[in-house]
Specification:
The protein has helices spanning 3-11, 15-22, 30-42, 49-56, 74-86, 100-111, 127-131, 157-170, 186-201, 218-228, 245-257, 275-280, 289-304; strands at residues 61-66, 90-95, 117-120, 139-141, 176-179, 211-212, 239-242, 267-272, 283-286, 319-321. It is of the alpha/beta class. The strands form 2 sheets. It has a 6-stranded mixed sheet, with helices on both faces. It has a 4-stranded parallel sheet with strand order 2-1-3-4, sandwiched between helices. β7 (239-242), α11 and β8 (267-272) form a beta-alpha-beta unit. 37% of the residues are buried.
Length: 326
């Protein structure tokens, strides 16, 4: 008698029902699932992973493609890996280090059926090239994509940045500086558009020299403050909106070292609302990154398992969390 036959006999359910529990099918009641899982546990039954994969026609592995792993992407990565694991999938992380050829290894693994699907955190190859791999399996991006063929779960950061801008203007700050990330990214372009529109709306002067690109880290935030203080005769911004909370932390730290009062002399707004912002009391834009990762996984599952009940995307929005730096 096979293991499945034995489990079916002891549980009183059919072998097909036992198989559905093994394959984590939603078409089994929780009570039935609990009985079968209890018997599996008593028998110390370990499912054959290869057999389950073959029965599903899938590897039960999803690739995640990124240039590298940093503090900004960790909430997305952790949430995606956890959600995938809860649903019986493993996640393979492909880091390219900015090497286009190395990045393509992930897409070649999709073509060779070594992974069932891919989620893109950041990519360096031409998007049209990456989109051509969709015929081999579903691809979803967290990075905002210009290519409509690759769906993205990213939110338009115009909306989040506008919240920060409206907030600081409402607090009385008018000399606004921007610490942007990659100058060519859709996120930076969206934030800059929000900045231009808000300055026009309130008839405030635009200072092109106060919009800085390529500012990502704590150290770069610190250096930005030192650069602004080099010439005491020049007018300085009274608030800086940052690409992320790391930059905001660096600005706050260096401003205090330079005996600037925060927020009286210089206000600071971060982005993402990480634990760092919470710990240091930094006003930040809450960016629901973990929830975007769950949306990415469910979007892939809807494509991989079209016969299953569709999981709808959670509707997400930015919100501002005011703290001591504004």
């Amino acid at each position: 008698m096979s293991n499945l036959d034995q489990i079916a006999k002891l549980s009183g359910f059919s072998k097909a029902t036992v198989s559905r529990v093994l394959n984590q099918s939603p078409h089994v009641s929780q009570a039935t699932r609990d009985i079968i899982l209890k018997i599996m546990n008593e028998l110390d039954y370990v499912p054959n992973g290869n057999a389950i994969s073959l029965s599903k026609g899938q590897t039960l592995q999803i690739g995640m493609c990124t240039e590298g792993i940093n503090e900004v992407m960790l909430p997305f990565l952790n949430s995606f890996v956890e959600t995938a694991s809860q649903n019986g999938y493993q996640t393979i992380i492909y880091t390219s280090g900015g090497d286009a050829k190395k990045e393509l290894q992930a897409f070649e693994d999709l073509r060779r059926k070594r992974v069932d699907a891919l989620v893109i955190s950041t990519c360096v190859n031409d998007q049209a090239l990456l989109g051509s791999y969709r015929k081999y399996g579903p691809i979803v991006a967290w990075q905002r994509m210009e290519l409509p063929e690759i769906p993205s779960v990213a939110m338009n950061q115009y909306d989040g940045y506008m919240l920060g801008l409206e907030h600081v203007i409402g607090q009385g700050y008018t000399r606004i500086a921007n610490a942007f990330g990659r100058p060519s990214s859709m996120n930076t372009l969206s934030r800059f558009k929000a900045y231009q529109e808000i300055m026009k709306k309130y008839d405030l002067p635009v200072h092109p020299e106060w919009s800085f690109n390529g500012i990502y880290s704590i150290r770069e935030g610190e250096q930005l403050v030192r650069d602004l203080l080099k010439d005491d005769n020049e007018e300085r911004p009274d608030v800086i909106l940052c690409s992320n909370d790391l930059v905001a932390a660096g600005i706050v730290s260096e401003a205090r070292k330079q005996l600037l009062k925060v927020p009286e002399d210089l206000a600071v707004v971060g982005f993402d609302n990480t634990e760092l912002a919470h710990s240091l009391g930094i006003t930040s834009i809450d960016n629901p990154i973990a929830a975007q990762a769950k949306n990415a996984f469910h979007l892939l599952m809807n494509s991989l398992n079209p016969s299953e009940v569709k999981v709808h995307q959670e509707k997400l929005q930015f919100c501002l969390v005011k703290r001591a730096t504004t």
